[in-house]
Amino acid sequence: MYDILVIGAGPAGASAALIAAKSGKKTLLLDSNQSITKKAWIENHYGVREITGPALVELGQEQAKKFGAELVQTKVENIEKASEGLRVDTENGSFEARHVILATGLFTDLAEKIGVQTKSGTEPRVKTIVDVDALGKTSVEGIWAAGGIAGKSLHTIIVAGDGANVAINIISELNGERYVDHDVLK
Ligand SMILES: Cc1cc2nc3c(=O)[nH]c(=O)nc-3n(C[C@H](O)[C@H](O)[C@H](O)COP(=O)(O)OP(=O)(O)OC[C@H]3O[C@@H](n4cnc5c(N)ncnc54)[C@H](O)[C@@H]3O)c2cc1C
């Protein structure tokens, strides 16, 4: 049983997985390798002079793995309630988790299939998004959403920040108190 399972390893999902794994939560990151970030050339990500999209995605995934997140390349086909938590069915088997984060970018097929509440997007060229509350919770207990799929402005720094924010909200709920992750310069 994973504490936090993240679907989508673009900037939103990998950032969420990085924070979750670094906090000590058992974290799984599932990805179908269709990130739109891989088409980008990026010069507006704070703290990074310039980087290719593929390099940013690879670096983010490596950072998440460094802290213990497991990354599996597969497509998620369904999510169902399990006796405890949620069961996530993929092309390559099933996984169970207490919390699931949808970070599927512009892909809404999974969200629509599992019946989380959706609504019209407001960002350019984004038709449908998952309806989330201020914490990132969807209409289904245990399922959260972050980044492009949650209607955030399609910029790597914004979706990565949102993924981190949603992960911190889940960790805080699991711990029963607000979570903060500060390393201090030695
Ligand atoms: C051509 C182009 C140029 C851009 N230039 C810039 C720029 O200069 N600066 C900037 O800030 N932003 C830029 N962007 C936007 C930026 O790339 C997006 O804001 C950002 O990628 C969205 O991140 P995300 O994590 O929400 O989605 P994505 O990066 O798309 O990641 C979603 C992930 O979910 C996975 N997924 C989807 N469905 C499933 C499923 N069922 N099972 C498993 N995995 C699934 C996909 O494979 C994908 O890896 C650009 C975008 C494009 C297309």
TrEMBL record:
PANTHER family attached to this UniProt entry: THIOREDOXIN REDUCTASE 1-RELATED-RELATED
Protein name per UniProt: Thioredoxin reductase
Organism per entry: Aneurinibacillus soli
Keywords from the UniProt entry: Flavoprotein, Oxidoreductase
Keyword Flavoprotein in annotation: yes
Taxonomic classification: Bacteria, Bacillati, Bacillota, Bacilli, Bacillales
Pfam families noted in UniProt: Pyr_redox_2
Subunit-level organization: Homodimer.
E.C. code: 1.8.1.9
Signal sequence region: none
InterPro entries recorded: FAD/NAD-bd_sf (IPR036188), FAD/NAD-binding_dom (IPR023753), Ferredoxin-NADP_redctase_2 (IPR050097)
UniProt-recorded Gene Ontology molecular function terms: thioredoxin-disulfide reductase (NADPH) activity
Enzyme class: oxidoreductase
Needed cofactors: FAD
